[in-house]
Amino acid sequence: MSHHHPPAVSWHEARELLHDAASALTPTLSTEALPLQATIGRYVAEDLTARMPVPHYSSSAMDGYAVAGAPPWRLISPDYPEDARTNVHRLAVPITAGEATPILTGGLLPEGTEAIVREEHSHRYEGAGALGSGIHYLDMAEGYTAPKPGTDIRYAGAELSPGAILSSRGDLMTAQRAAFLGVNGFDELPVLKNVPVRCAFTGNEVITFGMPSPGQVRDAFGGFLEVSLAAAGCEVRPSARLADIAEEFHTFVTTSTARILIFTGGSSTSGVDMVRQTLTDIGAEYIFESVQVRPGHPALAAKIPAPAEGMNAGQERLVLGLPGNPLAAYTALYSYLPVILAGLRGLPIPALDRAELATDIPPLRKRSQHRLMPVRVSEGKAYPLDALASHMLSGLAQATHFALVDATGQRAGTHAILVPVF
């Protein structure tokens, strides 16, 4: 690896290069089957299809009566058991024209049913005289007419047919998606195993508790960055805190078996920043050395060989060097980690949403192609937040996304790419 520094790549190019590099690595990700609830936050390993029609049986959409023919209807009731735990939704008696039977929402549709009459639209009465005494009837309440065939019936297969795709490979399993699969009969799901990631936090000036004195800074990464990694689908290995000593960096890189190594700080070109020196010493191959975006310009990425022990030969690892300034570091993490993970999983680069800018964005004074700024997205508009300098976190603390905007300035009403905060 040469000591010169090639021109910075664009933000879009950095993502494409990372995705290509991750996609080309020897695959190591396998799958595992987990109980449904344990899959939340994991990624589906294969397409999942409906094993039955959705809904899987025809039922009532309302409390009321299943009816056949025109009113009035003679009421036919099933034999209700005394056991209160009995599933009355399965109790159904067949009906023919001129008959009705009580039914609950979700109740199995009786044979012969043509429509459902809602409870509040109906009127029950007992027959009178020698022929009708003790027999109950149903008619429409005043002001209502008999329902058309099919009214308030949920027909089997109306939502989905057997074989329909319920979830695709690479989908993030949310609680809502898991609930959907659960009602479709899934108890276990195949998911991708999480990608092993390990962090190294650098900087002799960093303290981990208490009030920082002049010349010190409070840690903005340890215990926080790992939460973002876990949310992205990583197996978070124990983090390391490195002094600005070349030997510690070399040991971390040459012994860590995680597939992705992340550094915070230490990636610029000054004499005390050890990441580049370490990568040079071990013969790493840069993917990019800097990016035309502010903040986050000093971010770098490289491929390094597997360590001598703990991994199979040929299993290259990726290094992602984040800037030391916290806002710049988080912009780089959110920009590039999802792209790496997608490549390792054999998935395309994640699609990004756009939103209309709520205010004008002035030009960036520093030379760059783009800027990433924390925004709060509400009702389809992106509202830029204050504190945009690379060391500031007060804007990020309120942000839902970063917006990628033109460094030459951008007008309100134009659209910007959104990078989710996770």
From TrEMBL:
Pfam families cross-referenced by the UniProt entry: MoCF_biosynth, MoeA_N
Record carries keyword Transferase: yes
GO cellular component terms, semicolon-separated: cytosol
EC code: 2.10.1.1
Residues annotated as domain MoaB/Mog: 198-343
Cofactor: Mg(2+)
UniProt keyword terms in alphabetical order: Magnesium, Metal-binding, Molybdenum, Molybdenum cofactor biosynthesis, Transferase
Catalytic activity: adenylyl-molybdopterin + molybdate = Mo-molybdopterin + AMP + H(+)
Pathway noted in the entry: Cofactor biosynthesis; molybdopterin biosynthesis
InterPro entries named among the record's database cross-references: MoaB/Mog-like_dom_sf, MoaB/Mog_dom, MoeA-like, MoeA_C_domain_IV_sf, MoeA_linker/N, MoeA_linker/N_sf
GO molecular function annotations of the record: metal ion binding; molybdopterin molybdotransferase activity
UniProt keyword Metal-binding, yes or no: yes
GO biological-process terms attached to the record: Mo-molybdopterin cofactor biosynthetic process
PANTHER family: GEPHYRIN (PTHR10192:SF5), MOLYBDOPTERIN BIOSYNTHESIS PROTEIN (PTHR10192)
Family from the record: Belongs to the MoeA family.
Annotated function: Catalyzes the insertion of molybdate into adenylated molybdopterin with the concomitant release of AMP.
Protein name: Molybdopterin molybdenumtransferase
